[in-house]
Amino acid sequence: MNQKYVYNxxxxxxxxxxxxxxxLFAQRTPVAGSIQTYNNGISWGTNAQRLSDDxxxxxxxxxxxxxxxxGFAVVGTISGSTISWGSALELVTDNIIYAKIVxxxxxxxxxxxxxxxxxxxxxxxxxxxxxxxxxxxxxxQLSNTAYDIGWQRSLQMVALTENQVVxxxxxxxxxxxxxxxxxxxxxxxxxxxxxxxxxxNVSNVSLVRMSDMKxxxxxxxxxxxxxxxxxxxxxxxNSNAITMGTPQSFESxxxxxxxxxxxxxxxxxxxIFEDDGGTDEGRLFxxxxxxxxxxxxxxxxxxxxxxxIEDLSMTTLSSTEVxxxxxGQSTTTSHYFTASLLGNNFTLGAETELISGNADEFQVVSIxxxxxxxxxxxxxxxxxxxxxxxxxxxxxxxxxxxxxxxIQGNSTDIVSGDSSPSTSDYTDFGTxxxxxxxxxxxxxxxxxxxxxxxxxxxxxxxxxxxxxxxQPATSVSGSSSTTFTIDFxxxxxxxxxxxxxxxxxxIHEYNYHFSIQAVGASASVPIVTTTTASNIxxxxxxxxxxxxxxxxxxxxERGVVYAITSTNNNPTxxxxxxxxxxxxxxIGAFSESITGLAASTQYxxxxxxxxxxxxxxxxxxxxxTSALSVDDEFLQKSINVYPNxxxxxxxxxxxxxxxxxxxxxxxxxGKLLRTLTLINKKINFSxxxxxxxxxxxxxxxxxxxxxxxxx
Length: 711
Known about the structure:
Pfam families: Por_Secre_tail (PF18962)
Keywords: Signal
Strand content: over 45%
Shape: elongated
Structural class: mainly beta
Protein name: Choice-of-anchor D domain-containing protein
Domain Secretion system C-terminal sorting: 641-709
CATH class of the domain at 405-519: Mainly Beta
InterPro entries: Ig-like_fold, Secre_tail
Number of helices: 2
């Protein structure tokens, strides 16, 4: 075999392998819906955020009808590829210089803005969402520092949790100093921490959440030695304090234009940027994050080479797929494409034109793994519509093997971020000293949903009143479900509130959370009823009860008590002549079959239940055992037991035709004490304690039970 043949064979094998690997990946193509208009007027400064699996919120400046740039927000409900819009709320009546929104939960959005009346001073409002209705809080200053923004890309915000937000902005226009700080949300107010200086001579900032306590930043750094260098840096948050890692360069040979980051997992992200150094092309690469150190294991993938890029937008569909939106210059159309991670590099789908003509301020926002929206302005009246009209398109993709979390209570969906507890979905537990509710975690996707151990946690004002009694499974396969149970215990007769958190790897709802509440109550003894006796015979009957309430405390024991009425007509545990027969624990109906009764005898009986607060009894009822049968009467006449009461020896006289097989002795609770053999027509009772006993004489012609009193 010559060397050339071996070389060609290896070449064929290599090409075949590459072909096989590439064919493992099938690029998805988004299908665009029709244009959905949110503002049929001049719109600009748009910013959109996902609220939930079927809702988005869009902020925009309305420059029509004399509004002169007033700020508005509107919520849209997505159904298929269409959106129904609620009523837009005017947030600020003064001309807005710049503003942004960030979603804290499905019901709360932070709005930060700079207005014409107070330039260089940032303010914020908290927006509360109910359905498609928006309510805005009063405004408050972001902090005591006046901020300058070099341009709009210098203000970035990200929510780490529903109660923690991080903001990055250019704080001094002279030095382009990049500041970052965090705030803790409580209701409609935010407590801000101290600013941290990241770098000077900075522009084109991007900010992304990595975990509940970590974020990543990308920015263009103009330090004098290298102009337009691309940098990455990570920060960790503890309460309101930020600790920054060491900035790392990812591009030092090109001039960085716009930049964007999106997280894929808690330890990986996609980075996109514009090479503005002559080629005017976009570049995309994959990076990992360990602690605050970045690693770039693959190569940059180039796109849109030689075309005009004004801005870039990127959103995550799954841990291996992103969508990129390209905002062309004022004379250039805008495009979008998907990119999938294969190994350590991205493979790009086809670039598709958003609309015929220019679309400005193009932003892509993922809704779930199979759907995203493109928010844009129909610029320059190119489509014969209102100039600068605010539009949206909904894009759908074929389903993939990704997880999709949904949580239900009482078979009713609970949206992540729900802050209005209801009895209909079990988020309102009701009233009681001890309550319990079970919730279902559904995986409506086809990929495995990972929850991990102890996935459910509790926070909030009265978190200590609630506990997780049963954690869900650590993972849920596609189209399957698991459950978890929350217990409530409180003697405080007022509304107690908390928030449930469900950690999972659904990239769009990684911190599924919702509010719960219950009203406590003082615990009391259980409530129990006595049921009517059944199956009554000469020596046995079935009696029982029903524990209808545990009184707010766990029922540790339940059962029945009974006695011969002439001895004790109000039987209680430990009473004279009383037999106790216990039946497990907890609430609910129960019954017991009691034996060893005397024929033709009236008994008093009642159900009981015990918890830590005490013992309660149901109504006392009566039963009368059946009369003896003919055979019983024969034995009654043929067997004579004496003396009664007895001290030492008990005699049993029988007719010669009857043979005694054995004699059993029971206490009043029906417990068998001993089995005796009749010797010389007598049994020894001298070593038996004083009290009431039953003896059962078993013969070849039946059995006879007698009540014996031992002195």
